[in-house]
Specification:
With about 220 residues, the protein is an alpha/beta fold. It is built from eight helices and seven strands. It has a seven-stranded mixed sheet with strand order 3-2-1-4-5-7-6, sandwiched between helices. Bound molecules: S-adenosylmethionine (SAM). S-adenosylmethionine binds near residues 22, 23 and 51. The site of S-adenosylmethionine has 16 residues, from strand 2, strand 4 and helix 4.
């Protein structure tokens, strides 16, 4: 059974997708997609040989013909073999390094990302790369929140609020309340001389609370 974190990625995959699971590690997502015929094709890749060996072992045990590739990001994969990119369990810097190659994402229609950090920067840079944040899912697992972002190829740009806070939904209010509580706790610990950071956090709390109220009225 997949973790809820990987389930949230799976929920964004559609039957016609040609998926590349970048940094597959154990390969669980690729295996689940292939076994349940949830997409047209899937390639499992990793930059690290021992990680890819883990995936190969799990794939072999299930006797599945899933293609695996040892590569940095999308480098050794032909663009005609994928139109959907999944990158999860990495930081924003690594994710952007992988996607920072126009030729390699020219046929891509959809990118599903789960970054460990700097999500504001990630949403902003994805808009610059020509991908629009269409949806997000937030799950809580192993005492951590995980945000899965669905980007689709589009010249449209997200609003400033969407870039900063994501796609707000009532069902994720626990997470926004957690963010507000964390900001409040940081403010109490900041020394007086860091008043600019303190003001910025207070502004964010106000903005987020206002957006939540607006969402409640919908
Ligand atoms: C924490 S694991 C996440 C595994 C899986 N994607 C998941 O979400 O459960 C991160 C994996 O990304 C791989 N990785 C890191 N940088 C990479 C890159 N530039 N290209 C491909 N894989 C990379 C690592 O080797 C590692 O196996």
């Amino acid at each position: 059974m997949l973790s809820r974190r990987l389930e949230s990625i799976k929920s964004f995959i559609l039957k016609n997708d040609k998926v590349v699971d970048v940094g597959c590690d154990h390969g669980y997502l690729s295996i689940e997609l292939y076994e349940n015929k949830l997409c047209q094709s899937v390639i499992a890749t990793d930059i690290n040989e021992s990680a890819l060996d883990r995936a190969k072992k799990n794939i072999r045990e299930k006797n599945l013909p899933i293609r695996t590739v040892l590569t940095d990001g999308l480098k050794n994969i032909s663009t005609k073999d994928y139109d959907t990119v999944v990158i999860s369990g990495m930081g924003t810097r690594t994710i952007l390094h992988i996607l920072d190659n126009k030729a390699k994402i020219k046929n891509v229609k959809k990118i599903i990302l789960q970054s460990n950090n700097n999500r504001v920067e990630l949403r902003e840079e994805m808009n610059k790369l020509g991908f629009y944040l269409k949806d997000e899912k937030i799950i809580y697992e192993n005492k951590k929140y995980y945000i899965t972002m669905l980007f689709v190829k589009s010249a449209n740009k997200n609003t400033k609020e969407e870039i900063k806070y994501g796609i707000l939904k009532k069902e994720y209010f626990d997470y926004y309340n957690y963010v507000i509580t964390s900001y409040k706790s940081i403010i109490t610990k900041l020394p007086l001389k860091r008043f600019k950071e303190s003001h910025a956090l207070k502004r964010s709390i106000k903005e987020l609370s206002k957006l939540m109220k607006k969402e409640l009225k919908k």
